[in-house]
Design brief:
Elements (H helix, E strand, L loop, with lengths): L27 H5 L8 E2 L2 E2 L1 E2 L10 H13 L10 H21 L7 E4 L2 H16 L5 E5 L8 H10 L2 E5 L12 H4 L4 E7 L11 H11 L2 E5 L11 H4 L3 E5 L10 E5 L1 H6 L10 E4 L4 E3 L13 H15 L3 H22 L2 E3 L8 E5 L8 H10 L2 E2 L1 E3 L4 H7 L4 E5 L6 H19 L10 E2 L11 E2 L5 H12 L5 H13 L22 E7 L6 E8 L2 H14 L2 E2 H6 L2 H8 L1 H4 L2 H34 L1
Parallel strand pairs: 3-15, 5-6, 5-7, 7-8, 8-9
Antiparallel strand pairs: 1-2, 4-10, 9-10, 11-12, 13-14, 14-17, 16-17, 18-19, 20-21, 21-22
Length: about 600
């Protein structure tokens, strides 16, 4: 099915495949018909899904397998004698065999089902460290790691007195392999390493890691979350001790994952969790544990997700691996060239990469990743923004985050062209002339505790200001231009002082960092002035909208104003992603809470004056 020939070399730690024909690389149109969500429309546009590094879409085969399970085989597994339970058990255990063959594990008992890569790594961090590690032992990680391959080891280090060491990277995102002899020594007990960086796409040469581990007798765990859906995997040839991956990045359901481990290690490790199905005998004096794999599978698993995992593996096996791999590499090469032409700055140019491109926009003006992702969403393009659960990596690169486009075999060259066109459009939007914002009636004088003035509007009502803002936004035909205008409003706001950026003024619930400072206007009892600042351009613009509405207004008027109706009127709620809406709601809540406190105090003061 879908078999073609072409010439290329597969990524590290996978076999070389030579082909000679000029047959088209991949029948991607046929493949796309297998994925119902890919026919989704984003308004009048085709929906472009470039967030495969976060989760992959699911083919009909997976969706129908889950549906069939619930319709025809739903029962708990292992612990009943009726036929329905046996059918469910057979489906569940057949997936274990499929996984064993898919990764070439020596035995099915070495395949442990988990909820995903994160739980798989936590299992090893808990059980392996408890059994085999002592105070002073060392764990080696890399600067590329996802938080899921950092935090579990930090927790283990705290419990057992371990030391964590980190393999550095160069500016291209490549591991500095020459540092391995210095980092890996007789105290090293485990190296936990990603196979493919989720943030940059860097492919790690596992063979070098294994060679250095064997030199000192250390074990190796590989985070394969970004590898298994895109490359061949042979855990025996790889030579590692543990391998972890998630089903949902393998075109299978969320809630399904795998830990493969060498049997001698799994046998020696204590259980990770206690409960049903992982025991042999239980008494109040002593419990004995089941054999592998049950020892590490306490309680009722997500049976339907595991059935779906089996269907996902079947689907991948039905495709020609060489063709889908070559197609993804073609996407990577083309996207890299097009983004270079657009003028964004690509972050991570390792020699060996998966089909992942991270980038930032510095020109014509710097646009933070969250804002750029929001603007791309307006164009119907789904990307991931932020630190990608790789804060130490972003710190190393000197960035708060990036925009990440991650591809799968169902993506197309035309979709990459759409991304390039959208980025060019965004750049033009920020260069285009705009109407000047409505004048602000008056400015507050600088106050001792603030670095600059905040806009106040004591001569105009909130409703009048809302009308002006709505009129300004209605001058633009599309939301990218509206966002650009809102961002420009934010750029005109004064910055908060360092002292005002404290925990008291921080607003939680926002995806970006937001601080909001408030005070009563001098010589008034209930007029509030606000200043705020965010590290995200679009949020700074939303702050400008809120301060324009509320700063310099009486507390009771702030409380009464129907902000949700205003948001609906200007279209914010339908054009802002949920995390941004939640952050906006948190800012509004803080403003109204402060107004409520001021109004309550004013009322009390009035009552006291009346009594006096």
């Amino acid at each position: 099915m879908h078999r073609v020939n072409c010439s290329y070399r597969i990524a590290r730690n996978a076999p070389k495949i030579e082909c000679v024909s000029d047959t088209p690389l991949f029948d991607v149109d046929q493949i796309r018909m297998d994925f119902p969500i890919l026919s989704t429309r984003a308004g009048s546009r085709d929906f472009v899904y470039f967030d495969n590094g976060a989760t992959t879409q699911k083919p009909y085969a997976v969706i129908e397998a889950i549906d069939s399970y619930y319709r025809n085989s739903n029962a708990n597994i292992h612990r009943a004698v009726h036929q329905l339970s046996q059918r469910a058990t057979d489906l569940f255990e057949s997936t274990r065999v499929k996984v064993q063959r898919f990764i070439n594990a020596p035995a099915r008992e070495e395949v442990i089902f988990t909820r995903g890569t994160t739980e798989s790594i936590n299992l090893v961090a808990s059980s392996l460290c408890a059994k085999f590690m002592n105070v002073g032992d060392e764990i080696v990680l890399s600067a590329l790691e996802h938080h899921s391959n950092i935090v579990p080891w930090q927790l283990a280090a705290e419990r057992h007195g371990l030391t964590i060491r980190v393999i550095p990277i160069d500016d291209s995102g490549e591991l500095l392999y020459d540092e391995l002899p210095k980092l890996i020594n007789q105290r090293t007990k485990l190296i936990a390493i990603t196979h493919t960086s989720n943030a940059l796409g860097t492919i790690v040469d596992i063979s070098q890691i294994v060679a250095h581990a064997k030199r000192v007798g250390a074990r190796v765990l590989v985070d394969g979350a970004q590898w298994v859906g895109h490359n061949l995997l042979d855990v025996q040839k790889l030579g590692v001790d543990f391998y972890a991956f998630s089903g949902h990045k393998l075109f299978a359901p969320t809630g399904s994952g795998v830990l493969w481990g060498k049997r001698e290690l799994l046998d020696a490790m204590p259980p990770y969790q206690g409960g049903g199905d992982m025991i042999h005998t239980v008494s109040f004096e002593k419990t004995t544990y089941a054999e592998l794999p049950n020892k590490f599978e306490a309680g009722t698993p997500d049976i339907a997700a595991i059935v779906g995992l089996g269907a996902g593996i079947d689907y991948l096996n039905s495709l020609d691996f060489s063709a889908r791999f070559a197609h993804e590499q073609r996407l990577l090469e083309y996207a890299t060239r097009k983004l270079d032409e657009v003028g964004v700055r690509i972050i991570g140019r390792a020699k060996h990469k998966a089909a992942i491109v991270s980038f930032v926009m510095d020109e014509p003006r710097k646009i933070d990743p969250h804002t750029l992702g929001t603007l791309l969403d307006v164009e119907g393009i789904a990307v991931r923004t932020g630190h990608h659960c790789c804060m130490p990596l972003m710190d190393r690169l000197g960035l708060p985050g990036t925009v990440r486009a991650s591809f799968a075999f169902y993506n197309t060259i035309e979709e990459i062209n759409q991304l390039a066109i959208a980025l060019e459009k965004i750049k033009r939007s920020f260069n285009a002339p705009r109407p000047a914002p409505a004048p602000i009636a008056q400015q507050a004088t600088a106050r001792p505790n603030s670095p600059a003035s905040a806009p106040v509007s004591s001569n105009r009502s909130i409703e009048q200001i809302a009308d002006e803002l709505a009129d300004d936004l209605n001058l633009f035909d599309n939301w990218n231009d509206r966002y650009a205008y809102i961002i420009e409003l934010g750029e005109k706001l004064p910055k908060l002082s360092v002292s005002e950026k404290n925990e008291t003024n921080r607003i939680h619930g926002c995806q970006s960092t937001v601080f909001l400072s408030a005070r009563k206007k001098p010589n008034t009892t209930d007029v509030l002035e606000f200043e705020a600042e965010s590290d995200a351009s679009i949020v700074q613009g939303l702050i400008a909208v809120l301060t324009r509405l509320f700063s310099g207004q009486r507390a009771q008027d702030i409380i009464k104003f129907d902000i949700e109706s205003f948001f609906e009127r200007i279209g914010i709620n339908s054009n802002l992603m949920m995390t941004r809406r939640n952050g906006l709601a948190a800012m509004v809540s803080r403003i109204k809470t402060l107004a409520g406190l001021v109004e309550s105090q004013r009322t009390k003061d009035g009552e006291r004056a009346g009594v006096a």
